[in-house]
């Protein structure tokens, strides 16, 4: 009955580094999809995607990293493998930080050690780290929801029990 009150635009954050080409490409993609017809190549009359975009030009905090890692599809990956780049400042082997706190501290001191961008859809619980194709996939999921091709949380078939 009150489902329309729950509907609001998703919140997407991009942890962005201006000197990272993938980060610049992802930011441009997110801004374009939010302000221009999406997808532009298929239907120029399509409306833009609706979401609140937050651009953060600093590494995520320790708590944010924990949440982001919980959104990753594979939980078996270590935090350093998921978050740290191949840049020499990230360390190698045993010198590579393993704890979330150490990774966040390294990212504050040396931003090049982190994989950029980090894009998070807080409502859907999805995160993409250092992957522009993953950002495109995230936008495609939003488009499918907008166009009714994918069921939202309220429409997903729930198992029927005795009392439902």
From TrEMBL:
<comment type="similarity">
    <text>Belongs to the FMP46 family.</text>
</comment>
<keyword id="KW-0809">Transit peptide</keyword>
<comment type="function">
    <text>Putative mitochondrial redox protein which could be involved in the reduction of small toxic molecules.</text>
</comment>
<feature type="region of interest" description="Disordered">
    <location>
        <begin position="143"/>
        <end position="164"/>
    </location>
</feature>
<keyword id="KW-0560">Oxidoreductase</keyword>
<dbReference type="InterPro" id="IPR012882">
    <property type="entry name" value="Fmp46"/>
</dbReference>
<feature type="compositionally biased region" description="Basic and acidic residues">
    <location>
        <begin position="146"/>
        <end position="158"/>
    </location>
</feature>
<keyword id="KW-0496">Mitochondrion</keyword>
<dbReference type="InterPro" id="IPR036249">
    <property type="entry name" value="Thioredoxin-like_sf"/>
</dbReference>
<dbReference type="Pfam" id="PF07955">
    <property type="entry name" value="DUF1687"/>
</dbReference>
<dbReference type="GO" id="GO:0005739">
    <property type="term" value="C:mitochondrion"/>
</dbReference>
<dbReference type="GO" id="GO:0016491">
    <property type="term" value="F:oxidoreductase activity"/>
</dbReference>
<protein>
    <recommendedName>
        <fullName>Thioredoxin-like protein</fullName>
    </recommendedName>
</protein>
């Amino acid at each position: 009955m009150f489902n329309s009150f729950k509907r609001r635009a998703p919140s997407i954050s991009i942890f962005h580094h201006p000197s990272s080409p993938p980060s610049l490409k992802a930011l441009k993609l997110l801004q374009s999809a939010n302000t221009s017809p999406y997808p532009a190549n298929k239907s120029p009359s399509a409306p833009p995607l609706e979401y609140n975009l937050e651009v953060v030009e600093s590494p995520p905090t320790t708590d944010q990293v924990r949440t982001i890692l919980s959104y990753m599809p594979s939980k078996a990956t270590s935090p350093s493998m998921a978050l740290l780049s191949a840049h020499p400042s990230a360390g190698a082997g045993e010198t590579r930080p393993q704890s979330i706190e150490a990774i966040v501290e390294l990212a504050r001191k040396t931003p090049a050690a982190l994989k950029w961008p980090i894009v998070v859809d807080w409502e859907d619980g999805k995160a993409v780290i250092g992957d522009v194709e993953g950002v495109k996939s995230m936008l495609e999921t939003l488009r499918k929801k907008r166009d009714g091709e994918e069921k939202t949380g309220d429409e997903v078939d729930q198992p029927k029990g005795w009392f439902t």
